[in-house]
Amino acid sequence: MTTLGMRIKSAREDAKLSQLQVGVSLNVSDKTISGYESDRITPPVDKLLKLSDLLKKPINFFLGSDVKDYKVSSRLRAVEIALRDIRQELREIKLLAQKNNLDE
Fold it and tell me: By CB atoms within 10 Å of each CB, which of 5, 34, 88, 104 scores lowest?
């Protein structure tokens, strides 16, 4: 099974572009492009459209046959990131509460 990241990397290499060159064109870092290619980061739809134009591949090349699957996957990833941020904030609140209790 070919992942979105594998398809992005393949298209970038076919276009003979570096991760840095693609990142500059998309206004993101080369590390973000690396994240896309390793499937750690799901590119937002607007970036995927820019990738499609830049790498001269139809959007279906990246999405596969069902665009709905991509949208669901992208939304789920956004929720995962939001939950991670909330967990971090809760840890910080807990530490502050513990510190305040110790100071009393």
Answer: 104
CA 82 to chain centre: 13
Q: How far, CA to CA in Å, does 57 sit from each of 13, 19, 85?
A: 12, 17, 34
Q: Which domain holds residue 80?
A: 66-104
- Distance (Å, rounded) from C-alpha 104 to C-alpha 48? 53
The letter for the amino acid at 84 is R
Secondary structure (3-state) at 17: coil
How many Å apart are CA 88 and CA 73, to the nearest integer? 23
pLDDT at 76: 67
pLDDT, tens digit, 9 for 90 and up, residues 19-53: 999 999 999 999 999 999 999 999 988 899 999 99
